[in-house]
Amino acid sequence: MRRTFVILALLTLGLLSYALYEGLVAAPTEQTMGEVQRIFYYHVPSAVTAFTLFLINFAASIIYLARRSPRADALAVSTAEVGVVFCTVVLVTGPLWARPVWGIWWTWDARLTSTLLLWLIYISYLILRRYSTSGQTPVIAAVLAVFGFLDVPFVYMANRLFRTQHPQPVYFGGPGSGADPRMTFALLMNMAAFFAFAALVVWLRFRLERARQDFEETQALEALLQPDARSPR
Amino acid sequence: MKFLYAAYAATWVIHITYLAFLSRRYRRLRDEMQDLRKK
Prior knowledge:
The complex is a heterodimer. Chain A is an all-alpha fold. Chain A has helices at 2-26, 40-67, 70-102, 110-131, 137-148, 151-161, 181-225. Chain B has one helix at residues 2-38. Chain B is rod-shaped. Classes of the chains: A mainly alpha, B mainly alpha. At the A-B interface, α2, α3 and α7 of A face α1 of B.
């Protein structure tokens, strides 16, 4: 297991390095925005990765609600946490692109606001999981995750349904959308690299959660076996 | 160019900070498990 992880980690590192080269060097410079457009190669793959992780969280939460499977619960919390990390990257790289291009760091348009809301929903999910002491916490969190996920399609559609400051879709945006094939290649490389990296981090987080679940179970059993834990006659 | 480098650097600072946080939680859980075994 450890050897497989090391091999996969090295492959991911290689892929991330190559994707970095593609994004910073190999992809052509965009004509109107210049070099700052290259933020796109980190911003978009981070957003797609975050959405994918929230989708897995949604599916795992439904499975947990249906079967009360601890593995599904561990997968749900792992994907939510790593998804929040990627969503944070989106919310940091976006303003760093907006400032030189729009002249402002932030605007309350539908795309940006719904993305911030998405981040807040999953932050509240993690806070609930971290600080609630109720035995029903995983159930409440799963319900929150199922409803919270409804914001993901809204974020995706926001710049299609509303007039936004955020750019219109580069891909799948109807006639006239699309980019130079070398730019598309750099984007796809970064997307593959970010997916591989996210999968590794989720794996680590999942194993940690499973170990924590085992530990809590052992602790509960220990408490039951303690002589002073027996009820007085 | 400074915004481009800031965005790329910020991305990795966020990821590395999270990995460090994860590693700390691993260590803490391992210590707690060892304490439980000693009891």
